[in-house]
Amino acid sequence: MARASAKPASAKKTAAAGKKPGPQKAARGRPSSSRYTEEELLGYYRDMLMIRRFEEKAGQLYGMGLIGGFCHLYIGQEAVITGVMKAAEKQDSTITSYRDHGHMLACGMDPKGVMAELTGREGGYSKGKGGSMHMFSTEANFYGGHGIVGGQVPLGTGLAFAHRYKKDNGVCYCYFGDGAVNQGQIYESFNMASLWKLPIIYIIENNKYGMGTSIERASATTELYSRGAAHGIPGKQVNGMNILDVRDAAMDAAGHARSGKGPIILEMKTYRYRGHSMSDPAKYRSKEEVQKVRSESDPIDLVKQMLLDNGFSEDRLKEIDKEVKAVVSEAATFAQDSPEPHPSELFTDVLIEA
Amino acid sequence: MPIQVLMPALSPTMTDGKLSKWLKSEGDAVAAGDAIAEIETDKATMEIEAVDDGVMGRILVAEGTEGVAVNAPIALILEDGEDASALDGVAIAPAPAKTPSVAHEQAVTVDAEINAPSPAPMESVYDGPVKNMTVREALRDAMAEEMRRNDTVFLMGEEVGQYQGAYKVSQGLLDEFGDMRVVDTPITEYGFTGLGTGAAMAGLRPIVEFMTFNFAMQAIDHIINSAAKTLYMSGGAISCPIVFRGANGAASRVAAQHSQCFASWYAHCPGLKVVAPWSGEDAKGLLKAAIRDPNPVVVLENELLYGQSFDVPESDDFVIPIGKAKIERAGADVTIVAFSIMVGVALEAAEQLAAEGIEAEVINLRSIRPLDTETIVASVKKTNRLVTLEEGWPYAGIGSEIAAQMMENAFDYLDAPVNRVCGVDVPMPYAANLEALALPKTTHVVEAAKAVCYR
Ligand SMILES: Cc1ncc(C[n+]2csc(CCOP(=O)(O)OP(=O)(O)O)c2C)c(N)n1
Ligand SMILES: [Mg+2]
Which of B424, B157, B396, B448 is nearest to B263 (CA)? Predict the structure, then answer.
């Protein structure tokens, strides 16, 4: 999957003149009249669709009893990770919670290995021993996959500490939810990150609910981007359903963090369409609420519409749909065919034998 | 071929549920992601979404039907381009989920793997030059030597830098290594323990100092959930080479919140190593081993030992293998096993016992996990009697573990039940007389040894 933005401007096809130009400011390497090129939009469409189709398939495999335990789907939130990754450079690191499948795909991890971990098989990223909430890839600089709400925030701050220590010019993207923002360890992390000017972007994925508790019922103040104020950390609220807004905000934030100015918070206003995990009573919000977001603010539909408005052929979108479907179904087949881990794996990876 | 839609499971334990409502009718177009039906169990309601584009061809289970089995076909969806005639003659059979191939059938015999005494690593006998120094200095030298040797090693904690260590253990390190490698943290145990653990995942080798282990209670989540479990949860992909060190156990007259032994807490957890030095030699050799170890290691020091002096090997290469106990005194009549400050108490008791004609063998555990079961068993085979000694509480303590292991590995060699000498099962009192009553003393050990010798 595409990792970012280093391609020269000449390699991109800019949106045709006369077609709806993007408003606002220009992002890097793009004529100032437009916020996007068609090639970029197609990439965004493909990457987000990959996550959505992957998650739908995961839900289906769960329904068939092939995936067990918890399974937290990312459907609805695709623009957040996909957009942020457009700002990422090779050496940057990513860490998140248990709602992590989309993050792994966007970091470039192999859908087969991710799906096979969901089914608890030998071919999974953690050899079947981590499951849906715990996968890692040093190659992709993806550091999990953490099941304790908020736990990834000090860990991510430590990744940023390591970027500074090694002077590798890297930035850590550390994701957590609107429920997690009330964990004390987050403020401990904010304080140290600001004190030591660590290169970290705290990305709050505000999907309005922590399990069944709406943000209004959990948080005394709901402007989450301002939660760093007491520690001198700037914050910004972003429409997390619009990948262009996400991408531009992430590029600015990465510039801030990379230049030694310290941490920054991005509050992504987003929405999860599915239940918290698989068995969700769905009694805490109305169907109309979900339906309204789906029909009015879907991040994939938005990009699709921009492409169609630009006169882009629907056939090419169909081709992408097919391509994505093939990748996902290959992942699903792999995840079902890969054997369960050998019983001897029970005892491995507890300690590194010196 | 029309696509079969199957009754999904909402949880791994669900076997059937109610199909409460169809959201699409036969003939309706469906797009991938569209909700097509609603199902219900006593715990939850869920919508079934289409995974492909197409047209709702046939509904096989009427809405309102209860007890629909998981994986039973409930509808047929026509793929793009198919018409209703494709529905004719579709064989409707539940498509059982593919069961994972059972490539490996033999059952695992857990007890053999876990309970067999693991061969302890060899200890190299040190016969180089030694220098008399305090435990405090030995710990400092261990860190300084390892920081010179490997520039990914750094120290962090409260007051480790400018203040030179709350107990002066890190004296001089800031001057030599600078503030990137000797990091004064805010008072934020949960946060800085997580930060250190994240830095270790990224390949650094942090030494996290807790002013005392009492305060690590706020951080135990990251020590266990993040540091100890990640190697396993990642299938070996992410290691966590980190040291958690600081004063553990009873200090003097500081009451219950500041006086507690955490050995059994950490020793309980797979994925951690736990060591507890007594002498200056232990302190230097074990801390160096902990820093070099690729795993998370908890180093339980003792405040009252910091000022005690011992002969300490001078060589930079002196490292004590983790998992190997040391016989501090040989004897044939009774074995006394102790760790940390209690080793001194055990040696005193052995002196008194010798005066009464009982030769005690004193084993300094050095490592709590992995435990050097082999050395203890060998000693018990010789003495046939065992006393365990620790400052911590008796319930589920280190003595309890050793007693259990002796049942499993040396039952036939015991001439008396194992006798545990522990701290008293109460929070530590402040009053001088009560505090003294709460801790194990030489006389308790002497009595216990005599008891197992039936004297
Ligand atoms: C420390 C802790 N407490 C409780 C839980 C159980 N739990 C798992 S997810 C969750 C809700 C978190 O919501 P949010 O941070 O908004 O993330 P989202 O699920 O919306 O992505 C809770 C309470 C947990 N895993 N860890
Ligand atoms: Mg949430």
Answer: B396
